Amino acid sequence: MRFSFASLAHNAMTYHQDWPRQWRSPTPKNHYDVIIIGGGGHGLATAYYLAKNHGVRKVAVLEKGWIGGGNTGRNTTIVRSNYLWDDAAHLYEKSLQLYEGLSKDLNYNIMLSQRGVLNLAHSLQDVRDTKRRVNANKLNGIDAEWLDAEAVRAFCPIIRTDKKARYPVLGASLQKRAGTARHDAVAWGYARAADMRGVDIIQNCEVTGITRQGDRVTGVETNRGTITAHKIGICTAGHSSVLAEMAGFAVPITSHPLQAMVSEPIKPVLDTVVMSNAVHVYVSQSDKGELVLGAGIDAYQSYAQRGSFHVVELQISALLELFPIFSRLKLMRMWGGIVDTTPDACPIISTTPVKNLYLNAGWGTGGFKAIPGSGFVFAHTIANEAPHALNAAFTLDRFSTGHLIDEHGAAGVAH
Ligand SMILES: Cc1cc2nc3c(=O)[nH]c(=O)nc-3n(C[C@H](O)[C@H](O)[C@H](O)COP(=O)(O)OP(=O)(O)OC[C@H]3O[C@@H](n4cnc5c(N)ncnc54)[C@H](O)[C@@H]3O)c2cc1C
């Protein structure tokens, strides 16, 4: 059933008892044309575009838990495209453009809120780097502005901008089209739209092995039996190296916890997203009124998706450097996700050494904003057995050829 004013009115008459389930819960078939491993945003978007743009008929998404239960449902929901290097900027800009039309495309309100993202500059070097990024963005046709300290104060009056601050605000970049989107809705919207096109979304189905015949992939072993497939795409974020090992190759990915937290809900007070790499905090206010705060990655590697106390202390002190106004707020809850980091802070969307096996990984701390664009180009790569122009640079072999796209220290460090 499509969501519309008519369907809402109709269901209101029956006390909302007759809404159908948003997607089926099918039994796995023995064989698929394409299996996508991982039911996060990237896996679900890939399945959707495989069905929609490439007419692939038999597609399954295998998810070991519940869809969106990984990083997709744990992130701080910032979307933006103001990356420094051309390859990254073009890919993230494509994604932002798809986000702008996504609620209509999926017939699902993803609650995109283009409230702007400020990246604060606190030192002369920050100012130079930020202005350079603003200019690079403009050359790539991406909206970006430089705000001096006074303009920052006018745009977001509750930021501490006085000169006595330990980290004085000297200015900021502003991308007005950037903002936030509702993370669950992105996963659910893609799931529902993919299901409507015949994609089987199979939850509680853990892939435990990847089978090969010679140099070609043939299927997967799961806790629900063996399933064969012509092609397989891996979209498992923090578990990418585990899946690659199952297929017999190594990836330059390390998995770290990344933590976030929310305050108690308060009345609307912050109508933009503020990020500071120097103080290291990024903050926005959710539609429920909570302040949503994100940290940097934990220094150690782990698969434990939980928060820890030392990060609370760091995050709250970083927040209060910029926003003394929040000093009496209470923290409500915190959590962690496992992010897949690469040496150049850029993703891998690529063929692999195993034929018909494709990898979409390495999004690290910033892949929520990339979900539509990543799904779009990964579906293209799987369907055509060759990359789309937008992901041609994001190969796995760049780590041996040296063609890195280094967003570390530029735009890849924050979300
Ligand atoms: C705290 C935090 C804050 C963040 N903030 C932002 C932000 O503000 N903006 C932004 O752009 N990005 C942000 N990110 C990053 C972003 O969340 C991720 O890059 C993105 O969600 C990755 O999506 P995904 O679909 O690749 O992975 P996931 O959503 O993690 O999905 C992968 C799925 O694979 C499944 N899986 C793993 N192994 C198997 C297996 N063997 N068999 C079957 N299924 C398996 C998992 O259960 C999981 O559901 C943040 C991340 C975190 C943790």
Please tell me about this protein's structure:
It is a single chain. The protein is an alpha/beta fold and 415 residues long. It has two domains: 28-77 and 184-252 and 344-411, FAD/NAD(P)-binding domain, CATH 3.50.50; 110-179 and 254-341, 2-Layer Sandwich (D-Amino Acid Oxidase, Chain A, domain 2). 29% of the residues lie in helices and 25% in strands. It has helices at residues 5-13, 41-54, 86-100, 102-106, 124-139, 149-155, 183-196, 240-247, 309-322, 371-384, 398-401; strands at residues 31-37, 59-62, 78-79, 117-121, 145-148, 171-175, 179-180, 200-202, 207-213, 216-222, 225-234, 254-263, 273-276, 281-285, 291-297, 331-341, 348-351, 357-361. The strands form three sheets. Strands 1, 2, 8, 9, 10, 11, 17 and 18 form an eight-stranded mixed beta sheet that branches. Strands 5-6-4-13-14-15-12-16 form an eight-stranded mixed beta sheet. Helix 3 (86-100) crosses helix 10 (371-384). The protein is globular, with a radius of gyration of 21 Å. The protein starts with a helix and ends in a 14-residue tail after the last helix. The relative contact order is 0.19. The model has no long low-confidence stretch (mean pLDDT 96). Bound molecules: flavin-adenine dinucleotide. Flavin-adenine dinucleotide is lined by residues 37-43, 62-65, 69-72, 74-78, 206-207, 235-237, 239, 258-260, 294, 337, 339, 363, 365-369, 415.
